[in-house]
Design brief:
The chain is an alpha/beta fold. It contains 18 helices and eight strands. A four-stranded mixed sheet has the order 1-2-3-4. Strands 5-6-8-7 form a four-stranded mixed sheet. Strand 7 and strand 8 form a beta hairpin. Helix 3 packs antiparallel against helix 4, helix 5 runs antiparallel to helix 6 and helix 5 runs antiparallel to helix 9. The protein is globular. It starts with a strand and ends with a helix.
Length: about 425
């Protein structure tokens, strides 16, 4: 076995090593530190962007010329890993520090979808890479400040200011707005006291423990070891769960919406966790409507298989709690037409109009009877078709969205 240092540019405190076994090329990337690991007490030092790019290029070249399975993946999976070099390099350029750089490399290697290739990130002793933040006490202080400041100012000063790194991506990607000011009408209309009572019921019902259990189970199934922040917050009654593109991966759950429906967490937590795992696989700036439909479909299907449930109609309906029985029946009866309608727009950019019409209108239906969440159903059905053709469940976390789109277009369009 030959041991190669990845690059002479790396700081002596942190080195990346490539272990190569010949003739069957086995590439295992290990992130090793002479420090005690990455922790809040000893933050990672930063390589320059030039050093990160040099290390990335060195590693990519080793894999390109020595990893025999890359060509095989093109033939068997239809995924050309080498063709994504620019995308991987951009993720490295966007890395704010060494830790983000290491995670970008880990995501890049995970796309190879080969059990012999991966990256192992050191963690504080006893850590599992997942941090749970419960924002109920902070929300209580927000509620206490309402009589003096009013709802909007109290929310801004006591809640948003502390968790803006969570709320800003929601404003950008869910509300598709440029400023947090867009949330003002919803905050002003929200019953703060009722939200607090619901969150307290969630905690009393051991909702926090349930989220930890389900998230850990999802990570185990997907063999996911990167850092991830989980925020159990009190929202404004609109977002049950989300995992959005951000500099630092996170999952958000609105505790006020699960206080009396804890059973829904069994589907919601794996769903959002799958989004977190897949976030490293696409660039939100180039995300198409078709990609978004597939992302929601993959997450929906994983929420079923993570519980070892069969992929039948009752479980698919349970994974879509915002869809009524009548709406689900409509989708079943019009599956082919709806699939053609949605995927005929697959290459379109994501717009507020498309997102509202096919994905994020909850239980509402349009004048034709088409549910506002039909995109979840269509995306899930497309993924289920691939699983029936022999795809493994674990592949879902690495499956390129375009591959699903191409399969749908061949079958229906």
């Amino acid at each position: 076995m030959t041991k190669l240092r990845l690059s002479r540019t790396l700081l002596p405190e942190k080195r990346l090593a490539v272990l190569c076994a010949v003739p069957a090329v086995l590439v295992v990337l290990a992130l090793m530190t002479l420090l005690a690991g990455c922790s809040d007490k000893e933050p990672w030092k930063n390589l320059s962007q030039e050093q990160k790019i040099e290390d990335f290029e060195y590693l990519f070249d080793i894999l390109e010329y020595n990893h025999s399975y890359l060509a095989l993946k093109v033939r068997t999976d239809g995924y050309d890993w080498l063709a994504h070099r620019d995308e991987f390099e951009q993720a490295v350029r966007d890395a704010a520090d060494d830790k983000a750089f290491a995670q970008a490399i880990a995501r890049m290697l995970r796309q190879i979808n080969n059990g012999h290739t991966g990256m192992f990130l050191s963690r504080p002793e006893g850590g599992n890479g997942m941090r749970i933040t419960v924002g109920v006490d902070d929300y209580r202080r927000c509620v206490d400040a309402v009589p003096e400041k009013g709802k909007w100012q109290a929310w801004l000063d006591e809640y948003y200011s502390k968790f803006r790194h969570v709320f800003d991506p929601m404003v950008k990607y869910l509300y598709m707005a440029d400023s947090v000011e867009s949330l003002r009408p919803y905050v002003e209309a929200w019953d703060f006291e009722a939200g607090l009572r619901a969150a307290e019921r969630f905690i009393s019902a051991r909702g926090v423990d349930r989220v930890k259990e389900l998230a850990s189970r999802s990570a185990e199934i997907l063999d996911f070891h990167e850092d991830c922040d989980v925020f159990l917050m009190v929202g404004i009654g609109q977002v049950g769960g989300t995992a959005l593109p951000a500099e630092k991966s996170f999952v958000y759950f609105g505790t006020e919406l699960f206080a009396d429906k804890l059973d829904r967490l069994a589907f919601m937590v794996p769903h959002e966790f799958m989004h977190t795992v897949r976030r490293g696989g696409f660039n939100p700036a180039t995300l198409t409507f078709g990609h978004l439909v597939v992302e929601e479909g993959i997450a929906t299907v994983f929420s079923i298989v993570a519980q070892d449930l069969p992929l039948d109609n009752p479980n698919l309906k349970a994974a879509l709690p915002f869809m009524s029985d009548e709406a689900f029946a409509y989708c079943e009866g019009n599956r082919k037409a709806l699939t053609r309608e949605i995927f005929s727009q697959a290459a379109s950019p994501v717009t507020p109009e498309l997102a509202a019409k096919y994905l994020y209108s909850g239980p509402r239906c349009d004048e034709r009877g088409v549910p506002g969440s039909v995109g979840y159903y269509v995306g899930a059905r497309a993924v289920i078709d691939l699983l029936k053709e022999g795809r493994a469940v674990k592949e879902l976390s690495r499956l390129p969205a375009q591959e699903v789109i191409d399969a749908v277009l061949r079958r229906y369009c």
